[in-house]
Amino acid sequence: MMHMTLYWGIQVTLLLDSWKTDSLLSYLLTLLACFLFAAFYQYMEDRRIRLKASTSSSSSPPPPSPVNAPLLLPEPARGPTRLAGALLFGVNSAMGYLLMLAIMSFNGGVFLAIVLGLSLGYLLFRSGGSQEPEILLVDNNTCACA
Prior knowledge:
With 146 residues, this protein is mainly alpha-helical. The chain is 53% helix and 0% strand. It has three helices and no strands. The protein has helices at 24-58, 80-103, 108-126. Helix 1 runs antiparallel to helix 2 and helix 1 (24-58) packs parallel to helix 3. The longest helix has 35 residues, at 24-58.
């Protein structure tokens, strides 16, 4: 039977009928997998945002004077870069939805593992802690499935 409230047990069915935990070791390995997958999601989201920022900054012409500025937006990236951006978006969306479905197992340990993995991944990959300048985009969404 599927739980509809948060519970704290080591018996979890996660995403597939074949992914069931029945011992403490299998439960801890499942939590580790959830944690690492959530951190990897943040890494992939960082790669997607950096690709988007690099294509928009390298392909944009110098800004025209305010008097002669056209009312049209610059052309988006074309070809392989656009395809790579769409592919990364699709992969990130799938990963986000899988994380959401894992949380919907309603297991407290799975919930905490995913939230901690997302937090650590954000700290490592998206909070601007690297030597590179921070990329600021409005695209910074806190939802794991966006």
